Amino acid sequence: MSEAQSGKLRIVIVGGGAGGLELATRLGDKYGRKGKLDVTLIERNRTHVWKPKLHEIAAGSMDIAAHEVDYLAQSYWHGFRYRIGEMIGIDRERRQVLVAPYLDGEGREVTPKRSFDYDILVMAIGSQNNDFGTPGVVDHAIKLETQVDAKRFHERMVNACIRAHAQSSPLGEHQLKVAIIGAGATGVELAAELHRTTREVVAYGLDQVDPQTSGSR
User: Fold this and answer.
1) Beta strand 87-91 pairing with 96-99
2) pTM recorded for the entire structure
3) Is position 131 within any domain?
4) What is the Cα–Cα distance from 154 to 51, expressed in whole angstroms?
């Protein structure tokens, strides 16, 4: 439906991170709920967690449920539309955002390939880590950019502790060692959280693991 047909300006926001979600919420509160604007947020995830909190998810020191925002609920309460999917292109002539099919964990299609008309398009996809093509990064390192990354790291950490507890042989030289590249806020806080949570995991009954010999650097 065009702006002329609906009488409302169509604003499409791609990316539901801190910027995109905040913009959609504010526009929805001020204009969407009053029927003055048609605001749509396109995001490939179902929930939002503030990115600076990912290190706490990775370390296992944060209850995700207490901090994540459900996009569908947020859109209902704040006057905008949430549409799940990943942007795969923009048709500038038709002023459309092209969105890939959304598949569930078993590979079944939930939503088909779609397009969304816009009068104003806001790109809020955020930034990503750049490995600059360094050999080995893709195969061996875990980037901490999404909830999936953080949960994957946490699962590998806990599994490593359980594996070390169950094995009959001594720990290897590099076993239970974590190398963190980047000493910004996330890297430093992740190192601190890992020292604390490793001791908590051991205290849960993995008494064959010595927290003094494991850790991050």
Assistant:
1) antiparallel
2) 0.76
3) no
4) 16
